[in-house]
Design goal:
The structure is a homodimer. By secondary structure, chain A is α/β, with parallel strands linked by helices. Helices cover 47% and strands 16% of the residues of chain A. Chain A has a five-stranded mixed β-sheet with strand order 2-1-3-10-4, with helices on both faces. In chain A, helix 1 crosses helix 3 (31-45) and helix 1 crosses helix 4 (61-88). Chain A binds chain B through residues 1-6, 8-9, 45-47, 60-62, 65-66, 69-70, 72-73, 76-77, 79-81, 83-85, 87-88, 92-94, 284-285, and chain B through 1-6, 8-9, 45-47, 60-62, 65-66, 69-70, 72-73, 76-77, 79-81, 83-85, 87-88, 92-94, 284-285. The structure holds a DNA duplex.
Chain lengths: 316, 316
DNA sequence: CAATCTTCATAACATCAGGTTATATTCTTT
DNA sequence: AAAGAATATAACCTGATGTTATGAAGATTG
């Protein structure tokens, strides 16, 4: 004999509130409604749920057992409701993002950290890739948001793009590097040092070549290549090698005092860092919230960077 | 936004069975029914529960959260159903019985013990009293069944009475008593010993007087009075005192080797041990089952007693 | 103990959630 | 491209469950 969970909840409400009239108020229905519900339940069960002919309705043992379950059900219903509200407000769920390794490690990861302290119920899945793979993953649906430097006129078909930071690279080195304290730099100064190159296929590698050629360096020695940001920084601090990094990455690492930039202006890449997603797939609330968060963080970051830039001196 | 627990159960069924059609089979409804239920839920929640346009229906994270609660609800529903079935079959609940102390302690308590091993979910409440109090308690509704010696023509108004054992008393003493081994007894033999009397108001006390006078003893010394069965037996084993006890009590105590009966036939009381209850209050299943059990146990007991009686020799 | 107050039960009716069958659509597979 | 399987939609019907109005029965109290 199947029992309707709604009836069990009503039963619990009556038992807990001590009467039909009061119970009716609790569940927001009329007293006769509950009266009939109880009558039907009793008929179905073949046993009384309240003692016969007692006016302050006195629950039977059976009633108490069933009311226990009713309470469980009411509880579960509430939990479901809250889960739905959390989900819909983007405070629970999953956001899957992918991006170029250097940016992810150097900039995004700390933003994820602060996001997660604010919204611990949101789980963030992070993967790495360059533009073509990111596009693929977005299209397949494995990823909700990609973060990647893109030439605004070359946004892949079907994807929306929102720039979040102007592309700007700098020559980076360890803070302990001989050039780091030198007030004025010439090309001759940097010529002797070898270079750390990002992984061969990465856009940053192209940036490195272009940047150096833009300041007249065409022939350079690569002492280390292929690592992630952590490796690059690690190698850099233990050597006098130089590298090219997005300024935002250097900026975000400043608190670690593990990397600094040299005051030599090099060519901007023709790409902008931005978010990619498929407009046609409507984003889950958690994804929307995460995207908003990242955008806000980046606009903060841009502000900080431009302020610091006003106090710095750059040379061609 | 309130969510119907039925919907959550359906959701769980679909998520667990992996599809609408299969889920429909599980919950015993048609596929379009579930389809619409899901559609309404999604509309209500404002979020998809299954990924759009995927044919082996793939549950969303939200769906999974809600399905979790749905499973909880289904579980609670089942538990309620089982609770009801247990209750209705008398395998769960409460039976409140009351009775005269000597019988309760000497006979009923061990029956309760075996009943409880068979039906551990039934809780038994036991209280003590003599006929007038028992009647009162039955009428007030504090007690479901009373066990008491009653004169069949003096069953209290409004109560049903079912005899379960013929009243028969014996003279009891410790097994170590000098008279216990004596093959032939005369009144002169028992004259010297003092007596243990049941509590003054109890029916047994009257029995004692009547029984002794029936065998010609009118003047007897009472060395101990007022105790419960445990006290009586305890006092008896440490002394040479005699007492009058229902034979059923002596019979049930035989395994403890703490009491035995003397082969002297004394008058039967004009009462029969039986069950009392109010026919107009319809008994809860657990009470019915308990009553049946007690009745069966007593018919067994009567059988055993009559068998043993055939082998014993009694004298006037 | 009659009067009164509360609380529950019943009656009569209205509505819509949710069941059904039939059929169209859409995704997947071959 | 066609076949197959699963889901969505349409159209309809029923009964569970809501309502108000009112009667009946315990409980309470001067």
């Amino acid at each position: 004999m199947k029992i309707d969970p709604n009836h069990l909840m009503i039963l619990a409400a009556i038992a807990d509130s001590g009467g039909l009239s009061e119970g009716a108020r609790v569940v927001g229905k009329s007293q006769p409604s509950l009266s009939r519900t109880i009558a039907m339940l009793e008929a179905r069960l073949g046993s009384r749920l309240f003692e016969k002919g007692k006016k302050p309705l006195r629950p039977t043992e059976l009633c108490r057992s069933l009311a226990d379950q009713g309470r469980v059900i009411a509880q579960a219903g509430l939990a479901a409701q809250q889960a739905a509200e959390l989900y819909n407000s983007g405070k629970a769920g999953t956001a899957r993002l992918a991006g170029t390794p250097i940016f992810m490690d150097g900039v995004i990861s700390s933003m994820i950290a602060s996001f997660q302290t604010a919204h611990p119920e949101v789980s963030v899945h992070q993967t790495y890739g360059y533009l073509s793979e990111l596009t693929e993953q977005l299209n397949v649906g494995n990823v909700d948001i990609a973060i990647c430097p893109v030439r605004p006129d070359r946004v892949p078909e079907g994807l929306s793009f929102k720039p979040i930071l102007q592309g700007r690279n700098v020559i980076a080195c360890a803070p302990s590097h001989p050039l780091a304290r030198k007030p004025a730099l010439t090309l001759a100064d940097i010529a002797p040092y070898s270079w750390i190159a990002p992984p061969a296929g990465s856009p940053l590698y192209e940036d490195l070549r272009n940047a150096l050629s833009s300041i007249g360096i065409t022939d350079f020695r690569v002492s280390f290549t292929g690592g992630s940001l952590a490796s690059i920084i690690s190698v850099m601090s233990g050597s006098e090698a130089l590298t090219v990094l997005p300024y935002s990455v250097v900026f975000m690492q400043q608190h670690t005092r593990s990397v600094t930039s040299l005051p030599i202006r090099i060519d901007h890449p023709d790409r902008e860092l931005g978010l990619l997603w498929r407009e046609d797939r409507q984003a889950r609330p958690a994804v929307k919230r995460f995207r908003r968060y990242i955008e806000d963080e980046f606009s903060d970051l841009a502000l900080q960077i431009s302020e610091k830039g006003r106090n710095a001196v750059w040379r061609a």
